[in-house]
Amino acid sequence: MSLDAEDPVTMALRVGVVVVSLGSVVLGVRVAVSRRFPEAWVRLARLKPGERSQPVRVGIAQAMIGAGLLIQQAPFFVSMPLPLGRALFAVSLLLLLTAAGAFSLLGRWLRMMMCRAR
User: Where are the transmembrane segments (predicted)?
Assistant: First the structure.
């Protein structure tokens, strides 16, 4: 796969995914290292003091989601053999599933999703 074979719209979407995933990695690492949610997150989600106790898990999960998306886009920007591209795709899926598992461990997240379903 090469950059010349794609139309400009697809290429722009891929670059957008890379930029968003890099931002997600940076923000997730910041939350995990500082052990605090950004104030905008706290206000937007209306987190109570007891619900702010798991920023490390949320930050790590967000960083893994960003890394998974970034790894998934790598074969489209760098020439590589097909087996290596498939291996990167498998690693990407593993990261995304691990991040989903980390999010599912959050009781607040599960309660929030169940309340929205009603």
Answer: 12-33, 54-75, 87-110
The amino acid sitting at 56 is V
Domain count, the chain: 1
Structure tokens at 46: 């209306």
Q: Which residues span the domain enclosing 88?
A: 3-117
pLDDT values of the chain reduced to their tens digit, one per residue, 118 residues: 455 567 888 888 888 999 999 998 998 888 888 887 777 776 777 766 666 667 777 788 888 888 888 888 888 888 889 899 889 889 999 988 888 887 776 655 555 655 655 5
Task: Give me the amino acid identity at 112.
Answer: M
Q: 51-73 burial, b for 16+ CB within 10 Å, e for fewer? A: beebbeebbbbbbbbbbbbbbbb
Residues for the chain: how many in total? 118
What does the DSSP 8-state code read for residue 6? S
HEC profile for 27-94?
Answer: HHHHHHHHCCCCHHHHHHHCCCHHHHCCHHHHHHHHHHHHHHHHHHHHHHHCCCCHHHHHHHHHHHHH
